[in-house]
Amino acid sequence: MAIKLQNARKSDFNSTAMSDLVFLLLIFFMITSTLVSPNVINILLPKSDSGQQSTNRNIEVYINEAKEYFVNPQGSNAEPVVYEELLPLLQEAVANDQSDQQAIILRSDKSVPIENVVILMDVLNDLNETLEEGHRYKIVLATEAQ
Questions:
Q1: In the 8-state DSSP scheme, what is residue 102?
Q2: d(CA 138, CA 124)
Q3: H or E stretch including 61?
Q4: Alpha carbons 60 and 104: distance in angstroms, whole number
Q5: What SS3 state is found at 87?
Q6: Is 58 helix (H, G, I), strand (E, B) or coil?
Q7: How many C-alpha atoms does 43 have within 13 Å on its Cβ side?
Q8: How buried is 113 (Cβ within 10 angstroms: 0-12 exposed, 13-18 middle, 19+ buried)?
Q9: What is the pLDDT of residues 60-118, one digit of tens each?
Q10: Strand 59-63 relative to strand 47-48: parallel, antiparallel, unpaired?
């Protein structure tokens, strides 16, 4: 004589919780991806045919269309730097630099006169005079691909 169970077991899978989890992860990654932006300051880079893409996070200096300087800006609330503060901030950035490639990436708006870029190069020359021969920094001009 066979005994039947009163409670029949169901073998179906409820995927509602899984789809909710995937949806929440999608929202999380969409929000965090908008927070990470390489161009924090809104500038239009000049275009170039030849160039290499750098993945290292070196020291970055921005010059926007209002001719304001920014050294390693963090977030959208970055403060502009006056000319007199450029050298001390770059010296501090060099002291904290952990990258193998000793370079300062210049991201300049294409409407900025060359005079402002030369001012930054002068500050870089002053910075390199304080460093040893093998630890000097070079400047790299960031451009957009055509």
A1: -
A2: 8
A3: strand 59-63
A4: 6
A5: helix
A6: coil
A7: 29
A8: exposed
A9: 888 888 888 888 877 665 788 888 888 888 888 888 887 777 888 888 888 888 888 88
A10: unpaired
Residues in CB range of 119: below 8 A, 6 or more apart:
83
pTM (predicted TM-score): 0.58
Q: CA–CA separation, 87 vs 130, rounded Å? A: 11
The single residue listed with the structure tokens 């500050």 is 123
Look up residue 50 and give its two tokens.
Answer: 């030849």
**Residue 85 and residue 97: Cα distance in Å, rounded?**
18
Burial 64-98 (b: 16+ CB within 10 A, else e): beeebbbbbbeeeeeebbeeeebeebbeebbeebe
User: Nearest CA to 59 among 101, 113, 120, 110?
Assistant: 101
What is each CA distance from 94 to 16, 71, 90, 125, in whole angstroms?
52, 11, 6, 14
Which whole-number Å values give the CA distances from 76 to 28, 43, 71, 79, in the listed order? 20, 13, 13, 9
